[in-house]
Records
---
Amino acid sequence: MRDVLQCLGGVALCVFGLYRWSTVRGADQAAAQRYVHRSVFCLGIALVVLAPATARTVEHTVALPGLPMLTSDLLRMVAVSCLGLLAARSVPRQAVTTAAILLFLVVLFFAADLQHASGELYVDGARRPVLAAYDTVLTLFPAWHLSALVRVTLRRARRAAPGVRRIGLQLFCGGVAVGVVWTAWGLDDIRLALLTGHQSDGDDAVSTALGLVCATLVIAGGSTSAWTPLRHWWWSYRTYRALAPLWSALHRAFPETALLTHRRGLRRCTPRALRFALYRRVIEIHDGLLLLRPRMGPGGPPGQPSAQAWAAAVWAALDEPGPGGPAPAGDRARRALPPEGDGSGGEVGTDAEASQLAALSRAFAGIAGGGGRG
């Protein structure tokens, strides 16, 4: 079960990291996000490579004991190096340092001459210091980068104004702190290398859990630019659903107002399709209200009516037996909108109209659910 979860978690991290890496555009902030997603991508591959099933397949294919461990360790060092760039390090210097560390690890790995027996990796007694040096590099290099990054991120989080940016920095800082603990978990490997000469060729349950938690928090904190579009998508979805009662009633009365749509299935849930569907539903409701205006009288409810007053007027007009017709010249359905929104805040243009119509639709649904005005 842990094998399956580790593979699924690693694949999910790979796909998400690669997608965000390829889609983020822009200057400094986007560059920082690309570093984060490159790191997540490398961590995902490392988890997949080190999963027991994958490791066994690799070792049976290539007769080199410990190759999955070496590959996973190198990927982790690259991931840590990408995160280290967020601490305002020079990219060329960081690249040279990382390349030297990776080469040093490869040299130590082959110098240790690992052997495989009974499901464990081991070295001869004379080579224990070499294996211990390998594990020490794996511990100190990430600890150096992640500790510095924790300090930098924590300082930025304290200076940031309350809001999405601060929350993102706090989540990112928490993920890096978990990464420090994950790195410290490798201290036991140094002890085992020196005392027994044995080396684990896979992550235990705690190490896997720490890796997944670290990557998840880093993703959440490093993807703050996606929060606002996601929040707007959720608002659009809720608003679209809220418009259904009013739209259905007007559509039954005036089916000619419906516009054609060609999107089906999951494609209707994409941000662009949902945005267009919401816009179309607003237009259709406007058209229905225009046709309904002759039944509502010249001015509708007197004064500055609330959403409940307008909903009652629409309900009564829909019950009116007379046919609807075009509104007087120059009259706009915008006058039939109640003044208050739905509390989503910050909408302009179509969003503001959708909010107002959603309030009207909720009030209308309340009247319909109660059997009318009584």
---
Amino acid sequence: MVVVTAVALAPSAAADPAPHAATQDAVTQYQITNEAPGAGITVRDNAALWSVTSGTGVIGKAQPIGPDTRAHIGSLTKTYTAAMVLQLVAEGRVSLDTPVETYLPGVVDGNGYDGSKISVRQLLNHTSGIADYMTLGGGFNPANQLHPHTLAEVASWGLAEKPLFAPGTSTQYSDTNAILAGMIIEKVTGHSYAQELAARITTPLGLANTYLPTPGDKTMPAGSERGYLTKKILGSLFFVDVTEVAEPSVGGSGGGLVSSGADQTRFLQALLAGQVVPPAQLAEMLTVAPVPDKLSGDYFGLGLVRFTLPCGGQAWGHYGQWPGYTSIAAATTGGRSAFATLNVTPTAGSSSGSGSGGPGMNERVPMNTALCDQG
């Protein structure tokens, strides 16, 4: 169902705006700048959990976005995928520098690709040169939202495009890399990605709000954020509810997860504390590619982006987008983690189209503020 609504935005601060005033201001500005119905930030500081919010998660309702509010998290999924691959590395079942062909024979082959020359590591740090399937012919194709897909189908959309560059010679973000990593998880374990996610991460960490939707099931649980696209027509701002439009299996192991601020901060805090993968494999995750991404300038580790904080030090996390949802999350090795969510993705022709700026732009401001906020 698609619902189009015209509304005037009115940000609403948390009930008690005094604590964490800097972060409250950042989340309010994040909402206003991106012309979103609502935004929220959840922070863990070792054992303490706090959050701030502005606006609403559902147009027409007073529904603040809190720590347990579920949302599509898009490419934040990639960190879970990388962590599971690194667990398999620790178990001796996968090797980072072994060719993809060893685990997925015949999958990455032809059209300029040679799976014997692309390593697992190159999938996880985006140095594989494999094209991104999120194109008009693949993930953005409306026809592909009408029915479920296997990971192999989704990967084939990217592999149908010519390589971006020779493996290991550059860095460029590609969703196809994480889909292939998910296929490796399934091939090596003999279980579905969802089964391995539950057994390896969500159940051990108690992440009750984090799951991969069943292919074909576009519904969101009661109390979740609704996701919107925006459009300005003759000066009026319209919101299109697209919560139940995108097919979850199009995201899969690269972007299909639903989660919450409480779960995201718990997962990243545990990951950076060495509670998800052993220290040796965590060190691999935090080793960045030798050159930054050609488009964003980000340095990629394995399933992680390295962020430099304005208060000093670094944080590790990822961006996430899904139709109607924008998010970012990161954690430090000192025990602090933050998750910011916004219930729009801007579209061409809206003033928010330049407001979000895509990954790496104003998404960083609320996250950085939260990670540096000692108030």
